[in-house]
C-alpha cells in the first residue's frame, strides 16, 4: 500500500501564522537530529518579524530540550549537540545584552525626560531588568555594561557606531560569546585615551579574530591563525596587547596613587560566607596591620634560661651552677618586668594550644570587635533614633527547642540557632505574639538585655573577658548570662560576666565553666588544662589592686 503523500511545505512569509509554520516545521524536521532541527528552524525564523521569530525559536527550543536525552547519545553526537546549543545560546545572550542596554538607556533620567523604569514602578533600569527577567542584579549590570559599549550611540540627532564595532558585530552574529566580549571590551576600555584610535582598532580586530577563529590581516600567517581561543585565553591575550600598546600602564602614576581611595563591599553569599570585595590604600593597610599585629602578637611567656652546659658525663661545677642560677635570676627579672608592663601574659602559651583559629580568622574576629565597639560608642551616628543594632528574628518554639534558623534584617542568608542563642545572650530579646493572620497580639515591653549601666558595672568588676590570658580590650566585651535566660537566668550584674566575642561564641563547647558566688566571678579551666578541676577567681579590673605604701 502506498503511503499518503506529505503536504508540500509552504514558504513562510511575515503574514503566515506562527502556529501554521510550526506544523510545517514539525513535518519538515521529522527524523532530523536536534542540531539539524535547530538549524532549519533558524533559517525559517528569519522570514518572520522579530517577535514571531522569538516565539518560534522558543517553541522549537522547548521541543529540542524535551528530546535532548544527552545520556543516550554517542560521543560525537553529544559534542555536536553541545556546539549547536552553544551557538544558539550566543545569539540569545547577544539579544539579552542589547535589550538590557536599551532598557537602561530609556530609564536614565540624564538622557530621557521620562524614565522607563519609573513608569513601571522600578527605581533604575537594572531594577526593572531584574524584576522582569528574574536574573541577579550582578548579571543585569554585566549585560548593561557590555551593551553600552556595543550598541549604536546617539549624539544629539546623529547616530554613531558602537564604541567597539568589531566586538558588536561578532556578538550580534553569534560568533563570539558574552564572556569573551566582556574580556575584550573591559581590557580595551582600560587603555589610556591618549593612544591612537587606529592602534586600538587593530587590537580589537586581532582579539575578535582570536576569539572567533577568523583569519584577518592582523593574524594571517601567524601561528594558531584560524584557531578560536577560549575566553580565559582571550583575557591573557588582552594583557599582551595592553603591554604592547601601553608598556607603562602597569606602573601606576603619581596622580593615580594620590587619587586612590579605599573601597569595601560584599560579594554573593556562598558556602556560608559573604566574600569581601574591595581594596585598601597603603596607608589604611598600615593602620590595619598595626591593629592586627597588636592583638595577634605573642603574649606568651618565653622559655626559661637554659643551664650553663657541663661536659658530658659529669655534674656541673660550683662556678657553672652559680652561672646558671644567675642567668635564671636575670631571665626571671626580665620576664617579671614584661609582665608588669603588660607585654606578657603568663599561661598564654597554653591558651594558644586551645585557640585553633587561623590568622585570618583571628583578624576577622578583631575586625568584628572593632565594629561592635563602634556600634556601642556614644559618638556613633544613630539610625532611626537608635544606635546601630543587629535585629535577628526567630520562631519562639525553634529558639526554645534549639532547632531551626534565625533571620537578620537586611541579610538574605539565615543564621544558625546557636548564633541566635549567642546573640540573645549578649544583646537580649523581645517577645512578640502574632495571630494567624499576622496581627500583633502582644509585645513584651521588657527586653532581656543588659543596660548600659549594668554593662559599665560588669566591666568595672571584670576588667574585660574573664577567660585567663584573653587580651581583648574591655570595650569589646559582650555580656554573657551565666545562667541562660531560657533556664530562668536573670539579666542582672549577679548573673552577667564579660566575655570577648570569640570566648562567648565558644563557651558551650570550649570546656570553660563560669559561676558567680557571693558576687565574685569564678572560672574553671578545661580538664586537660587544669586537671585539678578547681574553681579559680576570675580576673578583676586592675583598679581593684591597691598600691602598697
TrEMBL record:
Domain of life: Bacteria
UniProt family annotation: Belongs to the Rv1128c/1148c/1588c/1702c/1945/3466 family.
CDD domains per UniProt: HNHc
Protein name as it appears in the record: HNH nuclease domain-containing protein
One Pfam short name: DUF222
Organism whose genome encodes this protein: Leifsonia kafniensis
Upper classification of the organism: Bacteria, Bacillati, Actinomycetota, Actinomycetes, Micrococcales
Residue intervals of the HNH nuclease domain: 453-505
Classification via Gene3D superfamilies: 1.10.30.50
Amino acid at each position: 500500500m502506498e503511503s499518503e503523500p506529505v503536504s508540500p511545505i509552504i514558504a513562510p512569509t511575515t503574514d503566515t501564522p506562527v502556529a501554521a509554520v510550526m506544523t510545517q516545521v514539525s513535518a519538515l524536521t521529522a527524523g532530523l537530529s536536534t542540531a539539524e532541527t535547530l538549524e532549519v528552524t533558524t533559517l525559517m525564523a528569519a522570514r518572520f518579524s522579530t517577535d514571531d521569530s522569538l516565539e518560534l525559536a522558543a517553541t522549537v527550543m522547548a521541543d529540542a530540550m524535551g528530546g535532548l536525552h544527552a545520556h543516550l547519545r554517542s560521543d560525537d553526537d553529544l559534542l555536536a549537540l553541545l556546539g549547536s546549543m552553544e551557538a544558539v545560546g550566543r545569539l540569545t545572550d547577544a539579544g539579552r545584552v542589547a535589550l538590557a542596554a536599551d532598557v537602561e538607556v530609556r530609564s536614565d533620567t540624564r538622557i530621557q525626560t521620562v524614565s522607563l523604569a519609573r513608569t513601571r514602578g522600578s527605581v533604575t533600569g537594572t531594577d526593572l531588568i531584574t524584576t522582569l527577567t528574574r536574573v541577579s542584579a550582578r548579571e543585569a549590570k554585566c549585560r548593561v555594561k557590555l551593551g553600552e559599549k556595543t550598541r549604536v550611540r546617539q549624539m544629539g540627532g546623529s547616530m554613531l557606531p558602537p564604541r567597539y564595532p568589531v566586538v558588536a558585530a561578532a556578538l550580534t552574529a553569534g560568533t563570539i560569546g558574552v564572556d569573551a566580549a566582556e574580556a575584550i571590551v573591559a581590557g580595551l576600555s582600560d587603555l589610556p585615551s591618549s593612544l591612537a584610535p587606529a592602534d586600538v582598532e587593530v587590537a580589537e580586530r586581532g582579539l575578535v579574530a582570536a576569539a572567533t577563529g577568523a583569519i584577518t590581516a592582523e593574524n594571517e600567517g601567524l601561528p594558531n591563525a584560524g584557531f578560536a581561543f577560549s575566553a580565559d585565553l582571550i583575557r591573557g591575550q588582552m594583557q599582551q596587547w595592553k603591554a604592547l600598546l601601553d608598556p607603562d600602564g602597569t606602573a601606576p602614576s603619581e596622580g593615580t596613587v594620590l587619587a586612590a581611595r579605599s573601597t569595601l563591599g560584599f560579594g554573593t553569599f556562598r558556602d556560608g560566607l559573604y566574600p569581601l570585595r574591595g581594596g585598601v590604600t597603603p596607608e589604611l593597610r598600615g593602620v590595619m596591620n598595626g591593629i592586627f599585629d597588636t592583638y595577634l602578637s605573642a603574649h606568651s611567656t618565653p622559655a626559661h634560661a637554659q643551664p650553663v652546659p657541663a661536659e658530658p658525663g659529669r655534674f656541673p661545677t660550683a662556678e657553672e651552677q652559680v652561672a646558671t642560677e644567675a642567668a635564671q635570676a636575670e631571665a626571671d627579672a626580665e620576664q617579671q618586668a614584661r609582665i608588669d608592663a603588660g607585654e606578657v601574659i603568663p599561661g598564654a602559651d597554653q591558651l594558644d594550644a586551645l585557640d585553633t583559629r587561623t590568622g585570618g580568622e583571628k583578624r576577622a574576629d578583631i575586625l568584628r570587635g572593632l565594629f561592635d565597639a563602634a556600634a556601642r560608642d556614644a559618638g556613633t551616628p544613630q539610625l532611626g533614633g537608635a544606635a546601630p543594632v543587629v535585629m535577628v528574628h526567630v520562631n519562639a518554639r525553634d529558639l526554645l527547642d534549639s532547632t531551626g534558623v534565625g533571620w537578620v534584617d537586611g541579610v538574605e542568608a539565615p543564621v544558625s540557632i546557636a548564633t541566635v542563642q549567642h546573640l540573645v545572650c549578649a544583646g537580649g530579646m523581645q517577645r512578640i505574639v502574632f495571630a494567624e493572620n499576622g496581627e500583633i497580639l502582644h509585645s513584651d515591653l521588657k527586653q532581656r538585655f543588659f543596660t548600659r549601666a549594668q554593662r559599665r558595672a560588669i566591666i568595672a568588676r571584670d576588667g574585660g573577658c574573664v577567660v585567663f590570658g584573653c587580651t581583648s580590650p574591655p570595650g569589646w566585651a559582650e555580656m554573657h548570662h551565666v545562667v541562660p535566660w531560657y533556664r530562668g537566668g536573670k539579666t542582672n550584674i549577679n548573673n552577667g560576666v564579660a566575655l570577648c566575642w570569640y570566648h562567648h561564641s565558644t563557651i558551650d563547647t570550649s570546656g570553660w565553666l563560669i559561676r558567680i558566688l557571693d558576687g565574685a566571678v569564678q572560672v574553671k579551666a578545661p580538664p586537660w588544662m587544669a586537671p585539678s578541676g578547681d574553681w579559680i577567681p576570675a580576673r578583676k579590673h586592675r583598679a581593684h589592686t591597691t598600691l602598697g605604701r
